[in-house]
Design a protein that fits this description.
This protein is an all-alpha fold and 269 residues long. The chain is built from twelve helices and no strands.
């Protein structure tokens, strides 16, 4: 229900944005709406994973949702000028992707990019660096000027967005993406870490579930609430009310699962 409300709300915001005259404000709104649209898709993926018993996969996808919400918060705070830099950073990412492809295509048995395609990408990259400076070529270089940091990290963006308290959960999501030793032993889908899990489980759903509810609500409010109409205020209040019910429901189910597991262990030989 929370996801459905968010989708309907951004549709209202998108329709209103169509009536704006072209300019930085419209560009800002369009980028924020695109971030929310992607956030809704990722939330749908999280729900799919939770429904099918993949808590660790859901936490890994929440990590992406958190990144989207943080980026949206920073862009919303600084407005049209940073939104334009965010959009233009495509040139940097395209150049980076091209360089990686050119280093690998022979081993893959693929064809190289044409000289015309390469020249087009390099031209756009050089233009962006000339306009924004050398710091623009770095990761999150689109935020360098506004954060007054030539090499901003995602942790810097989290602080700027007021989301630094989620860092431990973010690290847990990282563990579920990479092949570090932590991910071999700490699995959300295990009630007790002394076991092995090679598939589905009905354990561990609480953290990714409540995190997704909170982050989607934050993202929706960031994108849809500025300059609100009455309908926006109603939608925001309803989303917050639903969001607050999600952790309660997950905790209730988690507590019952713990009780059932304890009883089963006592009764097992």
């Amino acid at each position: 229900m929370l996801l459905t409300m968010s989708r309907e709300w951004y549709e209202w915001a998108h329709n209103r944005n169509k009536s704006l005259k072209s300019g930085k404000k419209k560009q800002l709104r369009a980028i924020l709406i695109r971030l929310l649209v992607r956030g809704c898709q990722v939330t749908d993926e999280i729900i799919c994973l939770l429904e099918n018993g993949f808590a660790d996969g859901a936490m890994a996808r929440w990590r992406i949702l958190h990144e989207i919400a943080v980026v949206a918060a920073v862009i919303s705070h600084y407005g049209g000028s940073i939104a334009e830099r965010y959009l233009d950073h495509q040139a940097v990412e395209s150049k980076r992707a091209m360089d990686k492809y050119l280093a690998c295509y022979k081993g893959l048995g693929y064809k190289p990019l044409s000289g015309r395609e390469q020249a087009k990408i390099v031209k756009a990259y050089d233009k962006a660096i000339a306009r924004y400076g050398k710091a623009f070529k770095n990761d999150y270089g689109w935020a360098a000027f506004h954060l007054k940091n030539d090499r901003p990290t995602f942790a810097d963006l989290e602080k700027e967005a007021g989301r630094a308290e989620m860092r431990s959960y973010y690290q847990l999501g990282n563990d579920n993406i990479h092949a570090g030793i932590k991910s071999m032993y700490v699995r959300l889908g295990l009630l007790n870490y002394d076991g092995l899990l090679a598939g589905r489980s009905n354990a561990g759903l609480m953290d990714p579930g409540q995190n997704a509810a909170h982050t989607l609500t934050q993202l929706s409010v960031i994108v849809c609430l500025p300059a609100p109409a009455l309908d926006d205020l109603v939608a925001a209040n309803m989303m917050v009310m639903l969001r607050d019910e999600v952790p309660k429901s997950f905790y209730k189910a988690h507590r019952q699962l713990r009780r059932d597991d304890k009883m089963w262990r006592k009764g097992s030989p």
